[in-house]
Design a protein that fits this description.
Rossmann fold, 5 domains, GIY-YIG endonuclease, about 30% helix, alpha/beta
Length: about 675
């Protein structure tokens, strides 16, 4: 089957030969464990054969410690048999079992293999993400408490769900699609994309779905993009003792205990960030990913998976419901909608129009150039006078970097990749591709070399607003920062935007939509619109306000599809327009994107790459980025391209070259 652990680079053809009787002709056949060893090199992405000692009982799914290339490492048993293609003299015994329980069950192993194939990653990398570190004392204490090993404890019963009439009334605005979702959660299956009504109490609705699923004796997984999520708080509170909360990166000991609680069935609701997507549950009935387009769900290390995709696939394999929640769907989710692989759950268009925030698109035309227009200042002052929050969403932390011409306002762009330039003393550089120049280039519109920041960062905006307001002005630049009591002005960045507001919001100002739309990333437009609509909806949160606050969107591009969609509260219109623009560029959702990241200049590899890739694949680059070199592939058949790349990647790995792959990257470069 596979090479032995002392010769990991030996090919499969070289390992063929021994017959089963060579392993034990004079006695019972020796047992062979095939182990995925947790090592990093891509060319070692296969199972290795080990002898199972006579006094050891081992089954597929158990974790073991083995000797590998002179080291003691962990591995996962994926198969147990009675023969091997490796000569008996080269087989090494398992060193020891890491716990008597099964860590990965057959259906779960299938999911791990799917993730490895989907993202072109070694199975060992997926295993490392999926399984926590073992703590023996946690197992001992769990056994003393009577709920370990798995199968020991009785399955706990949930509280009764809320009255059906109340739930029906809360979901009535979603019509037949809402009814189908709730029926599937109660006792069915399916994949859904839910676009909540503006101002919807998403926390209450998801808590209702969780209780409905538990009442059907099925379990719940809820992923949130940030640890301070109020929606997660509501789900945990509704589930009570049945929930384990994995948010915030608990210590390895606590994480293992909570993982064991889920593995043993005494936890029936798991809530966490993207890492919780692998946590086992006995009978998964509902898997939710809140704000599915949030870039926080994209793993930055191999296998570089996206939690949304894993959630939907995991629910499908379990025969449950996969639910993605989004105001503005990602490119991947939009493609799934077009292919009818997920069903939309949306309010009626009339209800959405009635509930949407008041959005004013303000170009500042005819006004002196300033960071905030008159309408923005007026809306913030009216909000604090009414005793509520005025919220200003900054596009960056700190002081701000992107530059524009000091005379005409034209953006100072990189001549290589058209990204915004940043000033470093007298010189300028591009954060997108690394281009540098000793002095600011002349403005192509007016010839001026004097530049000013396109938009201030949160810290600078906060300092300026404190001089203008006599109420607290708080700069919130990260998760979990408390807001002062209203009235107050909150200067926020994306990291402090939660799934519900900190209190009543009377005004939202979006001063730098243009800078956000120009970011050098594949998802810049939809991500900007998603964030803007999330914060704008704070002005109508709870669906009970009779006089919603004002949202002021400052822009010099009022006709941009994202700006038009915000004003009309119509993400569908955004994607219809955006798809037309992306068709000429062949960008997602019309094609798949893959990015190869090299530690050294890959120019010498381009000929081999072009020869290996399927016909029709586009290869762009290489582009230098932060000391590395990147290539972007635009492909129609992702699986075919990954298969074509595999021999090259194995050769690069064998040569110890630092090459990384990102399937469906968030950033273009």
């Amino acid at each position: 089957m596979t090479p032995g652990p002392d010769d990991p680079d030996r090919t499969r053809s070289e390992a063929r030969g021994p017959e089963p009787d060579q392993l034990g002709a004079d006695g019972p056949p020796r047992r062979i464990a095939r182990v995925v060893v947790e090592v990093e090199p891509f060319h070692l992405d296969r199972a290795f054969d080990y002898l199972v000692p006579d006094d050891v009982e081992v089954v597929a799914g158990q974790r073991v410690q083995v000797a590998f290339a002179g080291r003691s490492v962990r591995g996962l048993v994926v198969e147990v048999g009675d023969h091997s293609e490796v000569p008996p003299a080269r087989l090494r015994p398992l060193k020891r079992l890491l716990g008597e329980h099964v860590w990965v069950r057959p259906d779960e192993l299938g999911l791990l293999r799917w993730a490895a194939d989907r993202y072109g990653a070694p199975l060992a990398d997926v295993v490392r993400h999926a399984l926590p570190a073992r703590t023996v004392d946690v197992e001992r204490r769990a056994a003393d408490a009577g709920w370990f090993p798995p199968g020991t404890a009785r399955r706990p019963r949930p509280d009764p769900p809320p009255p059906a009439a109340d739930v029906d009334a809360a979901w009535a605005v979603y019509g037949e699609s809402g009814t189908e979702l709730r029926a599937a959660v109660a006792a069915g299956a399916g994949s859904f994309l839910w676009r909540p009504l503006p101002g919807e109490d998403v926390a209450a609705r998801l808590a209702e779905l969780a209780q409905l699923c538990l009442a059907g004796d099925r379990d719940v997984l809820v992923l949130v993009p940030d640890p301070a999520s109020p929606v997660a708080d509501a789900v945990v509170a509704a589930a009570g003792d049945l929930a384990v909360d994995l948010r915030g990166g608990p210590s390895p000991r606590v994480a293992y205990r909570r993982w064991l609680e889920a593995r043993c069935g005494i936890a029936r609701v798991v809530v966490g960030e993207r890492g919780a997507v692998w946590t086992p549950l006995e009978r998964l009935g509902l898997a939710v990913v809140l704000d599915e387009a949030n870039p926080a769900y994209k793993e930055r290390r191999s296998p570089r998976h996206h939690a949304r995709d894993v959630v939907l696939e995991r629910a499908r394999r379990a025969g449950g419901v996969g639910l993605a929640v989004a105001t503005v769907p990602s490119a991947v989710a939009w493609r799934l909608l077009r292919e009818r692989r997920v069903a939309p759950v949306t309010p009626s268009r009339d209800a959405e129009r009635d509930a949407r925030p008041r959005v004013r698109v303000d170009t500042g035309e005819g006004e002196p150039r300033a960071r905030l227009t008159r309408a923005s200042w007026r809306s913030l002052r009216e909000a604090v006078r009414a005793g509520s929050y005025g919220v200003l969403l900054a596009s960056r932390r700190g002081e701000g970097r992107a530059l524009v011409c000091g005379r005409c306002g034209e953006r100072t762009a990189c001549p290589v990749c058209a990204s915004s330039l940043a000033l470093h003393g007298a010189s300028v550089s591009c954060d997108g591709c690394g281009w540098q120049a000793p002095r600011v280039p002349a403005c192509p519109a007016c010839g001026e070399r004097r530049v000013v920041p396109l938009a201030a960062g949160a810290a600078r905006l906060g300092a300026e607003l404190r001089r203008a307001f006599d109420v607290p002005v708080a700069v919130l630049e990260g998760y979990g920062q408390p807001a002062p009591d209203p009235p107050a002005v909150l200067v926020m960045t994306r990291g402090s935007v939660l799934d519900r507001p900190p209190g009543p919001v009377g005004a939202v100002v979006l001063p730098d939509l243009d800078g956000s739309l120009r970011r050098p990333s594949l998802d810049a437009a939809e991500d900007t619109l998603r964030l803007a609509m999330t914060v704008a909806a704070w002005t109508v949160h709870g669906r009970v306000r009779t006089s919603p606050g004002l949202v002021v969107a400052q822009t010099r591009e009022p006709d941009h599809p994202a700006i038009a969609a915000l004003a009309g509260w119509d993400p569908g219109a955004f994607w219809r327009a955006e798809v037309q623009q992306r068709a000429a560029l062949r960008f997602p959702p019309l094609a798949h994107a893959l990015r190869l990241d090299f530690g050294a200049d890959p120019t010498g590899d381009l000929e081999a790459l072009r020869a290996a890739l399927p016909a029709g694949d586009d290869l762009l680059g290489p582009v230098p980025v932060d000391g590395r070199w990147q290539l972007l592939l635009k492909v129609d058949d992702r699986a075919a391209t990954l298969a074509a790349l595999r021999p090259l990647r194995e050769a690069w790995s064998t040569d110890d070259r630092d090459v990384r792959l990102d399937v469906d990257p968030v950033d273009a470069w």
